[in-house]
Design brief:
alpha/beta; globular
């Protein structure tokens, strides 16, 4: 039975779930460490969910009618869907159906008996999801327990909330065939079976009293999945005709966030669902269908949730422009609900808590709480007219005008330098010339190295916090950091690594550290955003034109190199990643901003080389992440993103070895762009996928150094030397040994020293084992 009441006039698609002070992170990590039990962890989660519902009602969302989404997760929403569908891979059969959180986290993180599910980026965001593994025999069995429990919990609080679940088409298109799947099998082949399980879940929710349910189908807006948009839309139509026709179900909100669903909207509106959401920040409306009335005809009896409030950036919504857009829909006769363009899980909780931010900058911003309030304000303006929100409109107009004219937003000298950068500034010498010049570095075949960071111990964090509070002076803090750098250098020498790093003890975050030293950026105190599981970052705010007032990393890298005869890499974060992992200004093209950042990094590389550094790594893990979901925009993005990297690195002479690092995205899709970076060595995440990226690299004829990761640093497991050696051998089947490097998947910042030393020791042993494979009988393997 469907809901008898429509959605209220304001709603959101989701809300941050880690807690205003990362309470969930701390509770989950305490559970992992054995300091609390499952009962205590679940109690903390209930408190957080209750606080969220209470906060959303206070900010203006109605407590009735399904306006408030139940978007909580202990780790990941795709993993939650896997559990709700009972789609546990066969390799986890011994814990399938256990229902306890230890088993849940085993899928996410692995344990002594299980390698975890693969992890990759959620569409074009910095959020990571646990990739489902589906084959022909994967069992499906509806398990609505958690969805029902949260629904009942909300009702006890006086809230009629809306369960949220990844939709069936998106779920299967994000899944990968398990290793046991047939050659021609793809997970989407099992759509009809999965839809039947969704129908069971909906029936259970209806029986528990749910009025509404939200099913997220962002696959509708992506050209980067297995199928074309037209094929995806046809599958969505097939799935939702069946779900919409079910006798017992809540009303369905079919959401299409993260991109442009304009072309699909008339067909989505005609489906037997009660509401459809469209992202109107990154997408638009079907103008012809809006003008000729066919869109209104398609949406007869169906609400359109207009996502006019940006869920992924922190700038204040232009209320006047949003209200005008909403008015066009209502004037056309479409029942319109004001909503967010995506879940608010991608922004921090509350800008009002950022008391250390410049007050002028703060007035330009809106975090999750402000966006909820803006959504409610727009709903009031839509219902009662613009005069009802005149004060809010005037305040917004003033803030937007102030932002446009503020000092530092436009700096002539910075813009002139970026405009003068030509193609010659984005080209290095020929590859063969560089290879010959770099032989002087003395790097062996199957060279071993790490990605950059070493564990950030409690002692490091205490010292940094003490320095920040003024309890430790600059001389003492610098002395502490030099001692930590020397300890890490000696440890790497002892383990036997070939190319060393200084460990990055001075850095709080690979983007924030640079933001703190570049003009045009600001950093937050409480602006945490979930990246995956318990991992949260504080994206910096890029608000103005970017330049480098002074060297940033040179003294630390130079000191590290002075301690050893082995080469030490200078470590920088690349321009695309700095943009992707910041909240970036939206008042100019990203390409222009990227070039400004690239020129600042180019200056830093010049100074590193002058200080004696001969290997510089410029990390671009977010290169694939920012790839537009719309195929028509992808070529332009790849051109400017690759161009920005090359602008940053092309000042280095042929004897300077440029490295880059890529992780946790499907890089096989953009091998041409990876090659176009023209780095001398590229390290890339590959351990969880068991070298999936190697075949595309081999097929492409990639000719420079490549280090596919052999140690998954996002799991607490210590991989054996034999396990890592096998991954090197798999890579070696497609990549010549003289090109191969041996390294972890990513930096070691989040790991502990005991597991790090054991894993890196095994990594060095693995390289020696594989070197021995190719050595003539009786030859040494050192």
């Amino acid at each position: 039975m469907t809901a008898t009441t429509p959605l209220p006039t304001a709603t959101i698609l989701g809300y941050p779930r880690i807690g205003r002070r990362r309470e969930l992170k701390r509770a989950v990590e305490s559970f992992w460490a054995g300091r609390i039990d499952e009962t205590e962890l679940r109690a903390t989660a209930r408190e957080l969910r209750a606080a969220t519902r209470e906060r959303l009602v206070a900010l203006g969302l109605p407590a009735a009618g399904g306006a408030i989404p139940e978007s909580f997760s202990f780790y990941d929403q795709v993993l939650d869907a896997t559990l709700a569908l009972g789609a546990i891979p066969a390799r986890f059969a011994d814990i399938a159906g256990a229902g306890d959180l230890a088993s849940y986290f085993a899928l996410a993180r692995g344990d002594e008996r299980h390698q975890p599910l693969e992890m990759t980026k959620w569409f074009d965001t910095n959020y990571h999801y646990s990739v489902p593994e589906i084959d022909e025999r994967t069992p499906f069995a509806a398990d609505p327990a958690q969805l029902v429990a949260q629904l009942v919990e909300a009702r006890g609080q006086g809230v009629s909330s809306r369960p949220v679940l990844v939709g069936p088409v998106t779920y299967l298109l994000l899944a990968k065939p398990s290793d046991d799947a047939g050659r021609r099998f793809t997970p989407i082949d099992r759509l009809d079976e999965v839809v039947a399980v969704y129908a069971e879940l909906l029936a259970s929710l209806a029986a528990a009293g749910a009025e509404w349910v939200q099913l997220d189908e962002p696959a509708l807006v992506s050209d980067s999945l297995l199928l074309s948009r037209e094929e995806t839309l046809a599958l969505v139509e097939r799935a939702y005709r069946r779900l919409g026709g079910a006798a017992a179900r809540p009303a369905i909100l079919l959401a299409a966030p993260y991109g442009d669903s304009a072309a699909a909207l008339p067909r989505l509106g005609a489906l037997p669902v009660e509401a459809v959401q469209a992202d109107l920040v990154r997408g638009g409306l079907p103008e012809a269908a809006l003008a000729d009335g066919s869109l209104a005809q398609a949406f007869a009896g169906t609400q359109l949730v207009a996502g006019v409030v940006d869920g992924r950036n922190v700038w204040r919504t232009d209320l006047r422009a949003a209200l005008e857009r909403l008015g066009r829909l209502t004037d056309a006769g479409i029942a319109t609900v004001v909503g967010t363009a995506s879940s608010l899980q991608h922004v921090p909780h509350d800008v009002a808590e950022e008391t250390r931010l410049d007050a002028r900058l703060r007035s330009w911003l809106a975090f999750a709480d402000q966006k909820v309030a803006q959504t409610a304000t727009l709903a009031r303006g839509l219902a009662d007219g613009s005069a009802a929100i005149a004060a809010e409109l005037a305040e917004t107009d003033t803030a937007l005008a102030d932002r446009a004219s503020a000092p530092g937003v436009h700096v002539g000298a910075i813009r002139d330098r970026a405009a003068a950068a030509g193609e010659a500034d984005r080209r290095r010498g020929e590859e063969a010339e560089r290879r010959d010049a770099q032989r002087a570095l003395g790097i062996p075949e199957l060279a071993t190295t790490t990605i950059g960071s070493f564990p950030q111990t409690a002692e490091i964090r205490r010292a940094r916090a003490g320095f920040g509070r003024g309890e430790i002076d600059r001389e003492a803090y610098d002395g502490f950091l030099r001692a930590e750098i020397e300890r890490v250098i000696r440890l790497q020498e002892e383990i036997g690594l070939d190319v060393l790093v200084h460990g990055e003890a001075e850095r709080n975050d690979m983007v924030q550290y640079f933001a703190e030293h570049l003009d045009g950026f600001a950093v937050t105190e409480h602006g945490w955003v979930q990246s995956y599981g318990t991992r949260a970052t504080r994206p910096s705010i890029l608000w103005g034109d970017v330049s480098r007032p002074a060297p940033i990393t040179v003294s630390w890298s130079g000191y590290a190199q002075s301690l050893t005869e082995r080469p030490v890499k200078g470590m920088l974060t690349g321009p695309v990643t700095i943009l992707a992992w910041s909240f970036v200004r939206d008042d100019q093209p990203l390409a222009d901003t990227a070039d400004q950042v690239a020129l600042a990094l180019r200056d830093e590389i010049d100074d590193l080389v002058a200080a004696g550094i001969r290997i510089v790594q410029v990390d671009e893990p977010a290169l694939r992440e920012l790839l537009p979901l719309d195929a028509e925009r992808q070529r332009a993005y790849l051109d400017w993103s690759v161009g920005a990297f090359r602008l940053a690195t092309s000042g280095a002479g042929p004897g300077i070895q440029i490295h880059t690092h890529l992780c946790y995205s499907e890089f096989g899709e953009i091998i041409g762009a990876v090659d176009g970076l023209d780095a001398d060595v590229t390290s890339i995440e590959a351990a969880r996928s068991r070298m999936d990226v190697v075949a595309p690299l081999g097929d492409h004829g990639y000719s420079r150094g490549i280090g596919p990761g052999v140690y998954d640093i996002h799991s607490p497991r210590v991989p054996s030397a034999e396990e890592q050696a096998e991954l090197i051998r798999i890579a070696g089947r497609r990549i010549p040994g003289e090109q191969l490097w041996v390294n972890p998947d990513c930096g070691l910042k989040t790991r502990g020293y005991e597991e790090t030393v054991a894993s890196l020791t095994n990594l060095v042993r693995a390289a020696r084992l594989v070197r021995a494979d190719a050595a003539p009988a009786g030859a040494g393997t050192a």
